[in-house]
Amino acid sequence: MLICQLTDLHIRPHGVPAYRVVETNMLAERALRAVAALRPRPDAVLLTGDLTECGLDEEYALLARLLRQHLDIPVYAIPGNHDRRENFRAQLGHLPGVAGDSDFVHYAIDEHPVRLVMLDTVVPGAGHGELCGERLAWLDRTLAAAPEKPTLVGMHHPPFLCGIGHMDAINLRNSADFVGIIAKHPQVRRIVCGHHHRAIMAQVAHTIASIAPSVAHQVELAFAPAAPSAFVMEPAAYQLHRWSAADGMVTHTAYVETAPGPYPFLSDPQYPGAARN
Ligand SMILES: [Fe+2]
After folding, report:
1. Contact indicator for 128, 173 with CB cutoff of 8 Å
2. What percentage of the chain has pLDDT greater than the value 70?
3. How far away, in angstroms, is 173 Cα from ligand 1 center?
4. CA 32, CA 215: separation in Å to the nearest integer?
5. Cα(195) to centroid of ligand 1, in Å?
6. How far is the CA of 197 from the centre of ligand 1 (A)?
7. Phi/psi at 151 (nearest 5 deg)?
8. Where does residue 233 rank: exposed (0-12), middle (13-18), buried (19+ CB within 10 A)?
9. pLDDT at position 274, please?
10. Given pLDDT bands bounded at 50, 70 and 90, which one contains residue 106?
């Protein structure tokens, strides 16, 4: 199974760049075109939050139109801190699971070889994430319902600290509670997140938690404790999580932009290994 993860699209109303700089609508469309052209086609596309910049109806309507126009692949979406649940549901309620719960946008998808458990870590009005008691209980219950099936958990706010101070300040607040639940469920093979706009990974309980880069702007790589919150226009990217029973879950980072090549590896006579050609 090939699972494509796009994150942090930050769609704006038509004609409005994000932060007066980033043409997020164009960048999102470019990413959707790149994913649509992938062969083999992904079996699922995950959108792990910050689908819009401000959670406006017109931003979701624009995204819904782009998804319909470009992707003929099942799309599973969850909100981030830039989203508003009510508008998210109103405009994206046709996507599987989105409108299934009256309180949160969380759901499980059982129809693929990998079970997808999509979480809602949003705290309305806040930048950080948190899983309340109700959502933690839902997660535990949902994972307990299919203990044998390989499972991927999707969430916006990462449950670990990464060393970029201003992002760590708004990560998942009660990550210890979350990690305690994951540790009880060995079938969880990967936790995929957004929010940090960079490719980052860490061990969480027995598994790997990964953050995908944004398909728009990236957060500056800055480890100085007082580094200001800032973004850079590093290459837009997305991730492909490839699952097979034999090899498990393997993640690739793919760039939206195309690059020169491919070129064959023509071996130099001085190459010390075995010639490829
Ligand atoms: Fe974001």
Report:
1. yes
2. 99
3. 17
4. 9
5. 5
6. 6
7. -130, 140
8. exposed
9. 83
10. very high
